[in-house]
Design goal:
heterodimer; A: 134 residues; alpha+beta; Heat Shock Protein 90; five-stranded antiparallel beta sheet; 4 helices; B: 292 residues; alpha/beta; Globin-like; Transcription Regulator spoIIAA; 2 domains; five-stranded mixed beta sheet; 13 helices; 5 strands
């Protein structure tokens, strides 16, 4: 699997979340994702970017276009140096939230992506990687 | 120091005015402002001449502190110039270069005047640099401030234009949402709708999300809260404008809106009319009668 394009965006404010969505949209169009798949990855990115901001205290996202053979995909890695998630399984449960949201963001992002990977260490930070393939 | 920098500079500006202006015109003519065609050469020269005169006046009574009172006419003139540059669409470089391109002719004049006296030359150059840098920065400040003003005004316009509540019929309101909903705007939108429900004694409010590019859990949460609040006030909500891709995404997200929703505003309106006991009927007889 090779990375053909990579860019990093900061997530420090609500405006940055909007910018992440716009950038993800541009990349999704770039690799030729259909309208539904575009909307799915943009929505997932929106959820994770807002998690990074609200629960991780800000961080950044690395957006990459990856190629495996003839397949192209969009991979997004969200990273923060926040408090981390103590119980990932609980955090992934639908309708569970430690804040005041709907508690569907993480589970929803997983269902909206082809690949989903989360790692988190208490006190160190959280990294979530998602990918959507064409 | 044998001589004050301000005096050296003043003397050079007074005695060498014609040569400095001539050199300045040439460097302005070579600059990009003229080539862009946004300003005529004669206008540029008039501005340059005025600025030069005011600079000399400022120097003669206020020294090299460009923030001093004696520089007020110059500062105001430069502010006007940069403001009009910003509006006319000059680049920041063009705008700043108007002042900075005066440096070379002045340094040149100083060199001619004080070539023999190194310390006077250094003092003069330092004085000229100090004044011109400050004035250059001032033009940039004004340029940016005018740009920010434009941006601020646009922001306000966007906020105002994107939150109208429309009365479709007696007791039927529509709220066409446009743009992102994850900002402070959402509060305004909600407030407007709830107030309109009171004012219009509305029974049904249609929230149209055709213009919302992404519906994520935060947007869904805002919608749910608005619907719940409207319900408490005795109005039913219909959410319309849910496009196929949004519907699929919402299902994957696991968001349940628990509210009547329709694909288009027209469908929602038809439902609202039916609920309020009205019907839209085609006047078939009259129409065909007219055609014959």
């Amino acid at each position: 699997m090779t990375v053909t394009k990579s860019e990093t965006l900061p997530i420090r404010s609500g405006d940055d979340v909007v910018r992440v969505r716009q950038q993800v949209r541009a990349l999704a169009i770039d690799i030729g994702l259909g309208l539904v798949d575009q909307t799915k990855i943009i929505t997932a990115a929106s959820e994770l970017a807002r998690n990074t901001l609200d629960y991780g205290g800000g961080g950044e996202v690395r957006a990459e276009i990856v190629q495996a053979g003839t397949r192209k995909g969009l991979r997004l890695t969200f990273e923060d140096q926040g408090p981390g998630i103590a119980d990932i399984e609980q955090a992934m449960t639908d309708h569970y939230t430690s804040g005041k949201g709907l508690g569907l963001g993480l589970g929803g992002a997983k269902r909206l992506s082809n690949e989903f990977h989360i790692e988190s260490t208490s006190g160190v930070g959280t990294r979530v990687t998602i990918a959507r393939w064409k | 120091m044998s001589m004050d920098g301000a005096d050296v500079l003043k003397r050079a500006l007074t005695e060498d005015e014609a040569a400095i202006l001539e050199a300045w015109y040439i460097s302005l003519r070579e600059g990009t402002s003229l080539q862009s065609g946004r300003i005529r050469e004669a206008e540029l020269q008039t501005q340059a001449k005025a600025v030069f005169g005011q600079l000399r006046d400022g120097l003669s009574s206020g020294g090299v502190d460009a923030d001093a009172d004696s520089y007020t006419p110059l500062r105001e003139n430069l502010a006007d110039i940069s403001r009009s540059r910003a509006i006319q669409g000059f680049t920041p470089t063009d705008t700043a270069n108007f002042v900075f391109s005066l440096k070379e002719p002045i340094f040149e004049a100083l060199r001619r005047k004080s070539a023999a006296d190194a310390s006077a030359l250094a003092a003069g150059v330092w004085a000229a640099g100090k004044v011109l840098d400050r004035l250059g920065l001032l033009t940039m400040e004004v340029y940016l401030a005018s740009r920010e003003e434009v941006i601020g005004r646009q922001g306000q316009e966007i906020a105002e234009l994107s939150t109208p509540v429309v009365r479709l019929w007696d007791g039927v309101l529509a709220l066409p949402l446009i743009g992102t909903l994850d900002s402070a705007r959402t509060g305004v939108v909600m407030e407007n709708l709830l107030q309109a429900i009171v004012d219009e004694e509305a029974e049904i409010a249609i929230i149209d999300i055709t213009g919302v590019p992404t519906v994520d859990t935060l947007v869904a949460q805002h919608l749910l809260k608005t619907v719940a609040a409207a319900r408490l006030m005795g109005a039913d909500c219909i959410v319309s404008g849910i496009r196929p891709q949004i519907a699929q995404t919402m299902v994957h997200l696991g968001v349940e809106l628990n509210v009547v929703s329709k694909a288009t505003l027209a469908d929602a309106f038809a439902l609202a009319l039916r609920r309020t006991g009205r019907k839209v009927v085609r006047q078939q007889a009259t129409v065909t009668g007219e055609h014959r």
